[in-house]
Amino acid sequence: MKKIDILARIHDGSITSDEAWSIHDSIIYDGVVNFQDVMMLTLLEHRAFCHGVNYDELSRWRYGGWPSTCQICGREIDINREHWLARSKEENAPFGLAHIACLPVSRESKEGEK
Description:
Elements: H1 6-11, H2 17-29, H3 35-38, H4 43-50, H5 55-64, E1 84-88, E2 95-99, H6 107-112
Antiparallel strand pairs: 1-2
């Protein structure tokens, strides 16, 4: 399957977000298991995508810079060295990053530790 730099195409305006999702769907439906490679996503971009960050936002991160601070504690996040999770504070709000250690532990998971 031919490779496509999906984030570059969004950034340069040659495709829309809807077109990016159509390309994504056709790759997935064709049974391509390495869509990260076909879509030319870096490992970090792929991880953020799997956390729910959409292609438009990933394109902004690639070309404008990734979030650099934790949404919870405010300290710097080194995306290449630290454990992080891409998250949105509210529904339909932009995504940011949070240190895994800063995430609140749910009551259910605490009860499971007993």
